[in-house]
Amino acid sequence: MRARFLARFGIFAECLLVGVWIAVAALPLVTLPAALAAGAAHLRRWTGDEEAGLRFFAADLRAAVRRGWLVGVAVWVTLALLWADLAVVRAGVLPGARLVGAAGVLVALGLAVALLRACAVWHPGARWRELLAPAGRRTLRDPAGSLLVVCGFAVIAASAWFSAPLAVPALGIMVAAALAVERRATAAATA
After folding, report:
1. pTM higher than 0.85 for the full model?
2. Where do the H-state alpha helices sit in the chain?
3. Nearest to 92 by CA among 104, 82, 80, 100
């Protein structure tokens, strides 16, 4: 019983550590998807009893940035457009503004979930374009899994509400949630 508890606590502690690594790696902002992908690759290695550590995380981050910095730019451009859309909605100049606002929030959540699901299956050498489209389809076809990833976002929001610095390690929990959802979807597809 004690060994099982320690193993599970070890996974939780590793998730928190990876959250800090992701936050530091994402400071340039355009590296956010790459940092999430490197964090997912690290957790995948760590839970698979493979060699893992900061050195491997850094190597994965370099590989993900090299091929995916444009994805980071696209993420921030999309967020800016959605923010502008919501600003117009809040101004009340559109008929049906509440419906448009709700649709904007749902689109933002859907895109964030698809991005996180793509990051969860990223591996060195993968092309982002080949990861994003299937991740979008999985987001729509697996609403239960997508809701679990949204719950990961809720953990970050609750952590930030409680104490802003707690949101940093909670990033690792969100990545672990996306990784678990992808493993669950793979297991269901092979069964």
Report:
1. yes
2. 2-25, 32-47, 54-91, 97-121, 128-141, 143-162, 167-190
3. 100
Q: Kindly state the tokens that stand for 142.
A: 């697996």
Q: How confident is the model at residue 179 (pLDDT cuts 50, 70, 90)?
A: very high
What is d(CA 76, CA 71) in angstroms, rounded to the nearest whole number? 9
Integer Cα distance of 5 and 80 in angstroms: 43
pLDDT tens-place string over residues 4-47 = 776 778 888 899 999 999 999 998 888 999 999 999 999 999 98
Residues in Cβ contact with 181 at an 8 Å cutoff, skipping those fewer than 6 apart: 117, 120, 142, 145, 146, 148, 149
Please say whether the beta carbons of 64 and 22 come within 8 A: no
Residues in the chain: 191
Comparing C-alpha atoms, which of 46, 65, 66, 48 is closest to residue 56?
46
pLDDT digits (tens, 9 = 90+) for 122-165: 999 899 999 999 999 999 999 999 999 999 899 899 988 988 88
* Residue 166 DSSP one-character state: G
From the number of C-beta atoms within 10 Å of its C-beta (0-12, 13-18, 19+), residue 118 rates as buried
Compute the half-sphere exposure of residue 32: CA atoms within 13 Å on the CB side of its CA: 14
